[in-house]
Predict the structure.
Amino acid sequence: MPAARESLLDAAHTALGRRPWSTVRMVDVAAAAGVSRQTLYNEFGSKDGLARALVRREADAYLAGVERALVSRSEPRERLAAAAEWTVSAARGNALVRAMLTGCWAERLPSPTLSAVPSSSAVPAQRRADGPLPSPGDFVGLVRDRAVASLAVPGASKSEASELARACELVARLGVSCVLAPAGEGGTAGMVRDALTTVRSVS
């Protein structure tokens, strides 16, 4: 991602942490990033384009964190527990991630439509941001698919593969549920371990 675009997204994210999105001004974002307002408009097209790009970046960062969590342990069950813990941690530390995972967009946040919007941008990253944004259900599927890809065993039977997919979706959904209602004793990882005790494909 070009440095100016990344700096502008950083500035927008910082501004959002200080005040509601509705009061964030494009001129202030440009000034904070050290670029002209025209550069900002060239990159994003509009304030809505900036919001979509910011949401897309945070979604990508969350999913990259899921992938890191899935390779951070040696045992499959612990890898899934780490992914669920990351989900809770990411949502706790980032209001946009929490909104994307739960569908609960606070008034102070931007709330771009999840469907694609017309885009005439010459910037490939902005054309991607102007495409469909993931819904909470999409995130469950994206996390499940990454977990399956990480844990799949070559030569597994169709029933074993299906059981693994169900276990990975269960963990993705548990992670989101712990965002909405924090886990009690044992935490998120403990809840995941308990839920997976009877799943043969995740041992």
